[in-house]
Amino acid sequence: KQEVTQIPAALSVPEGENLVLNCSFTDSAIYNLQWFRQDPGKGLTSLLLIQSSQREQTSGRLNASLDKSSGRSTLYIAASQPGDSATYLCAVITSNAGKSTFGDGTTLTVKP
Amino acid sequence: GAGVSQSPSNKVTEKGKDVELRCDPISGHTALYWYRQSLGQGLEFLIYFQGNSAPDKSGLPSDRFSAERTGGSVSTLTIQRTQQEDSAVYLCASSLEVWRQETQYFGPGTRLLVL
Question: pLDDT, tens digit, for every residue of B63-101?
C-alpha cells in the first residue's frame, strides 16, 4: 500500500527566505507526482506535475524535483512571500491508474 | 466551463438522511475523481471515473456511498443514511484522461456536516 509522508507538518519563515518542503513515498512504482497548494476553506490548486520519467519541473519561483529510486520529492520555493502562506500537498498516482495518494501536507506561514 | 464546479458548497444534514453531492468537471475532461478530506486529515481517494465507467470502487468507505456519472460529464456522489463520521469536505477533480496521467484540477469542495 502506497504511503506518502510530508515533513515538516508546519513551517514558519520570514519573508524572502528560500525554503524546501519534503515529500516521501513508499512505493516507487508511480506514474507521476503532483504538488498542490490549498488555501483555508478552498479547493486545491495544482502547482507542478512531474512525470515519472522526469527529474524536475519549474514554474516561476517554484522548483519540484523527483527521485523515484529513493522515493522522494522536494518542492523548493525561492524568495518566499506572505502570499505563499498555504498548505502544500504532494500526491502520487500509483500504478493503479487514476488512484492518487496524498500526503497530509505542510502548512507554510511566511511572515512579513 | 472555466473550472470544476461543485454543489452545494455547504450541506448540513441530520444523521440518517441521504445526501447527494454534485460535480461538474471541466468541459472535455473525461476523467473525474472524488476525494474526501476530514478535519485534520489528508485527502482520501474515493473513486474515479474514466468516461462513465468506474473501474475501481474500493476506495468508497462503505456500501452507503455510491457514485455515478452519466453522459461522461456530471457526477453525483450519494451518501445514504449519513453518519456523523461522514462529516468532511468532499472534493472533486477532473483531468483530460486517466491514462495520460494529466494534471488534476480540483473544485472548491462541498462541506458536509452531519448533526
Answer: 999 999 988 899 999 999 999 999 999 999 998 876 656
Q: Report helix, strand or coil for A99.
A: coil
Q: Alpha-carbon distance A100 to A96, whole Å?
A: 9
SS3 assignment, position A27: coil
Per-residue pLDDT reduced to its tens digit, B23-67: 999 998 988 999 999 877 778 889 988 888 887 788 899 999 999
Nearest to B50 among A51, A98, A105 (CB): A98
Asked if B46 and B37 count as a contact pair (C-beta separation under 8 A), the reply is: no
Question: What is the three-class DSSP state of A3?
Answer: coil
Kindly write down the DSSP assignment for every residue of B34-72, as one continuous string.
Answer: EEEE-TT--EEEEEEEETTB-S--TTSSSTTEEEEE-TT
- CA-closest candidate to residue A43, choices B23, B107, B47: B107
Q: Do B33 and A103 touch (CB under 8 A)?
A: no
Q: What are the beta bridge partners of residue B88?
A: B112
Residue A84 — φ and ψ, nearest 5°? -80, -10
Contact A42 B108 (CB under 8 A): yes
The residue of B7, B43, B46, B102 whose CB has the most chain A CBs within 10 angstroms, and thus the best one to mutate to test that interface, is B43
The three grid cell numbers given for residue A86, joined into one nine-digit string: 498555504
From the list A73, A76, A74, the residue with the least C-alpha distance to A19 is A76
CA A76 to mean position of chain CA atoms: 9
